[in-house]
Amino acid sequence: MMQLLTGTDNIAAETFQFVPQSIDAFGSTVIVEGCDQFRDISWIHVWTVDSHGVITQVREYFNTSLTVTRFVNSAKPVSVTFLHCPSVWESSLANRVGKSVPGLVLGI
């Protein structure tokens, strides 16, 4: 994959396309999900955007199932066992690549 993304694999670089299937935003976090069905690759980009619309951070996941949770602010100290982190987004394309993929939880 590194050769593809860095452009050193000329044949693959011409045929791989980042075609978004979904784009969602949660405050300053933007999540873009897509897949390359020809290669059986799913991908997720998570961007952090500042108040001027400039992307300040990029996270990229390939063939990974991602669940995004939002941490609930509380004025009282709470133990981890009582911390409620609702799921606000789940990837849907990772299961379509026809193979088992790892799962991650991203807290925002």
TrEMBL record:
This is Wound-induced protein 1. PANTHER family: OS07G0691300 PROTEIN, WOUND-INDUCED PROTEIN 1. It comes from Deinandra increscens subsp. villosa. Transmembrane segments: none annotated. It holds the Pfam family WI12. SUPFAM superfamilies: NTF2-like (SSF54427).
